[in-house]
């Protein structure tokens, strides 16, 4: 089964769709948790509480609640929200206006966590990848670590995963194994622009597919053509036509152009 990993564009796409729905400012009538590990805390505390805001930081959904708390949601490896149940529904939430929201998660790694303040989550994370400034990125890169593992570290920059790190590094023409600290100012500038561009392209594509599919997320196969290098090892580089190569870096499959990213 093919899963679209929940990197920042997927989370932002779902946030935008939820904002268009009718769940805001309506109290929760009932909540059922079918996989206990999916919810950290007492889920019944959500009953008679309304979702008043929908925000995102990195890969986290931050649902502001009428009781002052925050419901933080991480989709894990395969989670998604739907308005209809599936065979993999782990949590169902029914609102007082009749809207039903289902959390589906085939691989069961996603988590709902009820916290008193969103800062309990965000303080462990770096700047959001879509909002990070060039100066903040430069500060994150003051490390002798290899570049790709650093970009994957959510405490450094929040929201990037294997897909968009590979895409951004290809866009910026930077090799993933180079030392982060050794990047020139010009390379940092290129990487910053590449991160923003690839994420924005992913969000735009996701929203387009939502409108066509009337679902809360785009089907994974509809994103394949968007990727320039991810999942395309052995195929020609879109820029120079050299065969793309697959590397294994910190246990993660990595695809590069040996020519453009030399």
Structural notes for this entry:
A five-stranded mixed sheet has the order 2-9-5-4-3. With 262 residues, it is an alpha+beta fold. The chain contains six helices and eleven strands. The chain has helices at 8-20, 119-122, 134-140, 147-152, 162-172, 185-213, and strands at residues 28-33, 39-40, 51-57, 60-65, 70-74, 80-82, 89-95, 100-104, 111-115, 245-249, 252-256. The longest helix has 29 residues, at 185-213. Residues 211-215 have low confidence and may be disordered.
Summarize the structure.
Helix content is 27%, strand content 21%. The protein has 262 residues and is of the alpha+beta class.
Identify the notable features of this structure and list them briefly.
262 residues, alpha+beta, 5-stranded mixed sheet, 4-stranded antiparallel sheet, 6 helices, elongated
As a whole number of angstroms, the C-alpha radius of gyration is 19 Å
Structural class: alpha+beta
Query: What is the general shape?
Result: elongated
Strand content: 15-25%
- SS element count, helices: 6
Let me know the number of strands: 11
pLDDT < 50 runs, ≥5 residues: 211-215
Topology of helices and strands:
Elements: H1 8-20, E1 28-33, E2 39-40, E3 51-57, E4 60-65, E5 70-74, E6 80-82, E7 89-95, E8 100-104, E9 111-115, H2 119-122, H3 134-140, H4 147-152, H5 162-172, H6 185-213, E10 245-249, E11 252-256
Parallel strand pairs: 2-9
Antiparallel strand pairs: 1-7, 3-4, 4-5, 5-9, 6-8, 7-8, 10-11
Helix pairs in contact: 1-6, 5-6
């Amino acid at each position: 089964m093919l899963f679209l990993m929940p990197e920042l564009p997927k989370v932002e796409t779902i946030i935008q769709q939820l904002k268009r729905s009718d769940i805001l400012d309506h109290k929760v009538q009932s909540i059922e948790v079918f996989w206990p590990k999916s919810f950290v805390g007492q889920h019944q505390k959500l009953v008679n509480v309304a979702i008043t805001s929908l925000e995102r930081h990195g890969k986290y959904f931050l649902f502001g609640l009428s009781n002052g708390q925050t419901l933080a949601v991480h989709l894990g490896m395969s989670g998604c929200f739907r308005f209809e149940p599936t065979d993999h529904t782990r949590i169902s939430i029914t609102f007082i206006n009749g809207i039903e929201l289902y959390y589906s998660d085939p691989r069961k790694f996603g988590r709902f966590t009820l916290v008193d303040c969103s800062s309990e989550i965000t303080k462990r994370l770096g700047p959001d990848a879509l909002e990070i400034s060039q100066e903040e990125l430069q500060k994150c890169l003051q490390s002798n670590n290899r570049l790709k593992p650093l970009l994957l570290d959510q405490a450094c920059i929040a929201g990037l995963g294997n897909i968009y790190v590979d895409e951004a590094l290809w866009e910026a023409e930077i090799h993933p194994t180079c030392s982060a600290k050794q990047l020139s100012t010009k390379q940092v500038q290129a990487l910053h622009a590449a991160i923003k561009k690839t994420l924005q392209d992913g969000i735009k594509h996701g929203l387009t597919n939502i409108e066509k599919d009337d679902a809360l997320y785009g089907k994974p196969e509809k994103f394949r053509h968007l990727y320039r290098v991810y999942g395309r090892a052995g195929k020609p580089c879109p820029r120079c036509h050299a065969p793309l190569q697959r590397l294994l870096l910190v246990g993660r499959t990595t695809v590069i152009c040996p020519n453009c990213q030399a």
